[in-house]
Every structure is written in C-alpha cells, then in structure tokens.
Design a protein that fits this description.
The chain has about 280 residues and is α/β, with parallel strands linked by helices. The protein folds into 2 domains: about 120 residues, Rossmann fold (3-Layer(aba) Sandwich); about 130 residues, Cytidine Deaminase, domain 2 (3-Layer(aba) Sandwich). It has a 6-stranded mixed beta sheet. A 5-stranded parallel beta sheet has the order 3-2-1-4-5, sandwiched between helices. Strands 10-12 form a two-stranded parallel ribbon. Helix 7 packs parallel to helix 8. The protein is globular, with a radius of gyration of 19 Å.
Amino acid sequence: MLSRFLPSDFDSSRPISLIAGQGIYPQLVAAAIRSAGVPLRLIAFEEETRPALFDSFEAAHRVQIKVGQLGKMLKSLQQFESAYAIMAGQITPRRLFKGLHPDLKATQILFSLKRRNAETIFGAIAAEMEKIQVHLLDARSFLDDHLAPAGITGAPKFPIDEEYLQHGIQIARECARLDIGQGCVVRKGTVLAVEAFEGTDEMIRRAGTFKTDGALFVKTVKSAQDYRFDVPCFGHRTLESLREADIRAVALETDNVIILDRPAVEKQARDWGISIQGFTA
C-alpha cells in the first residue's frame, strides 16, 4: 500500500504534479513519490520553491511560475498530462498582499469569493483542477511515516499536567474552528498567544516575551479540515523557535499534523529537552 491517504481508485501509472512552496516539505513529498515509483512532475514558484528541488527534475517535467498565475498552472497540469496534483509547502504570507501576480483566471476566482482564506481560495482552485480532470490529493499522501504519532516522543517526560494540556487543546481547537489559526501557546490555564496570519514561528516568538516555564505549544486541525491543503506542519524551524522561547512542551494532533523529517526532529527535540505529546480528537 503506497499510502492510506490516497483514493481507492488511485492509478500509480499516471503522473502526479507536485505544486511546491517553501521548505523541506515539498522535498519530502517528492522523495516519497519517487520512491513509490509514481511518475512525478513539478510546478514551482519563483522565489519560493527551493532551487535544489527544481534542479532535480528534467526540463520537460518542470515549470516555474509566479505566485498567482493560476491559468499557467492549470495549463501546465494539462501539458504534463497529470491525473493528480498535490500541494506541499507554504507561500510567503506577505505575497498575498505584495508581490502577487494574479492572471485573469486567478482574478476571476478572487472576485467571486465573498471570504478569502485558505479554505475558500484553495477550494476554488481545486474545483478548477477537477474541471480539467486533475484530482487534488490529500496533502498527507505518501507521508504516513512523518505524521505525529500517539504518545510521547522527543524528551521522555511530558512536563504539563493533564488539566493544562486539555485547556491548551481546547483553545487550539476553538481558534481553528473560528479560522483564526491552528496553534496556540498556553501556560497553566492562561493563553499567552494564538496563531493568526503571521504564522506559527512569529506567534511562538511573541509568547516567548512572557514567562514561559510550564508553557505549552499546541497544534491541531479544523474540525472539518480539508486535507488537500493547509495541513498543519511541525519541523526544525518551529523547534528552534520553541527552544529560543524556552518552551519545552508540545502537543500535536495525532495523524493530522505532519512532522517534517520526523526522525531528525524527534532526535533534536530529545537533545534540546523538548517533549512532544500526540493527542487524538
């Protein structure tokens, strides 16, 4: 079985186009798909996708576009004869306001939306893909071994009392339900910071300006999460932010948060004395 997150009728002989944003996430997906022997193509973004990933594809199997060039992206999917697409990696948030290059197709979609957030924008893009017979895959596909596990990893002792853990989970879930963000930092029943547009690492830095002994970082998903996009991730950069803020406890929703390069992150967490607790919905 290639991945439990693939559709039951998945055809491994048909190409997947990886729509790649920042960081290591797209590289992990590319490596996993290649290891599975599935044909792979790349749609990269200027000033976002890592050059090493772009260079790893032969010229006929890759294209680079500007953020907002939806029409060109759809045309590339057709030229690649892709049956599937998978989104991996963030786009710099500020590009949604500065540096965005919307073409006619993207402009039409943006003007048609009453609310503009990840769910509505990417949902509309997925609908455009379906019109050309390209199925957008669950973003967890092929990364089964990189999902947050149940139990404790990293440092062996989880330093947060159950009451405070449940408080943090409740706050994170409520923030996700209200579409504010998917993470928070709490301390002994007090909310220090919640994640919003600035992203996880900036939120952690804000929390680090307060007293952080006994603080807990929580990452979760929406109750009706669309796993084709905006799937929460936890990686080395966030771990570094936690160490700098002196936050030693993390709670991640099991099977729903992707730990980017999980073996390396868990080892680094052990070395830095940061304990990671998996929790279920």
